Amino acid sequence: MPEPIILDCDPGHDDAIALLLALASPEVELLGVTTTYGNQTLEKTTGNALRVLELVGRTDVPVAVGAERPLERELVVAAHIHGESGLDGPVLPEPTTSPATLDAVALIADRVAAADRPVTIVPTGPLTNVARYLEAHGRAGLERVVLMGGSIAEGNVTPAAEFNVWCDPEAAARVFASGLDVTMVGLDVTHKAILGPTVEEQLRAAGRIGVFVGELNRFFSRYHAETYGWEGAPIHDAVAVAHVVRPGLVETRLRNVEVECDSELCRGRTVVDLWRRTDRVPNAHVAVDLDAVGFFDLLVERIARLG
Length: 307
What we know:
12 strands; two-stranded antiparallel ribbon; alpha/beta; 12 helices
């Protein structure tokens, strides 16, 4: 049976690709999409989620509006990476559908209650919605959380921190401390998933949706060329979805992860006890390696299914 999942996201170029991968994969059943601020404002990320679903004719998947700001911090968005719309590059029409009447927390609760097996949440943005859900409803009915965020040894918004965790470190700390089965797919691994010219051409040859992904990647690559000198862009969020779809692509180790909330210099750092230097109890499966060839083979094959 397919694994029931809810994608909690802030589309965003790589979120959009993650959403497409989930829709194209029979190994999972996408019960709903919940949106949050992050790559752009909540209004824009919600509109982008609706646009992507309309693009592939999947308006049956509900989109629920979530958090518009962090639990305690000021709102910061990544417009310098994802553009004014949050999904700059290809031009999509305004959505003709509307979000669900339930908000994100209520939709997750509704879908979890209705599911015939425990549900996996796949957050690919700040963890505010997930923290609020856990506060209101607890862990019952949840299988695990597979998140894109954090890192072992590098940052992308500061030298110490990855953007999703940095945006709302208090929310992230609650998720890691929740007692849930948590998998952290961080920058150490997603920076190995750089979608370069060869794979982009394979995607463009795969059909209409592949062309759309290629256009997303072309815009997304500009920032990464200027910042890192890379020929392509890391498709961070799709790696988290791929880990659910095809176990074995991502190698993980069970380790303790703590989130730094007090230091401004290291705000949002995920402190991973990789070498077990403390007696802290392991609380997360931490991604340490990626079969990048296998990942991109999966991505191209699944995007081709969408036509």
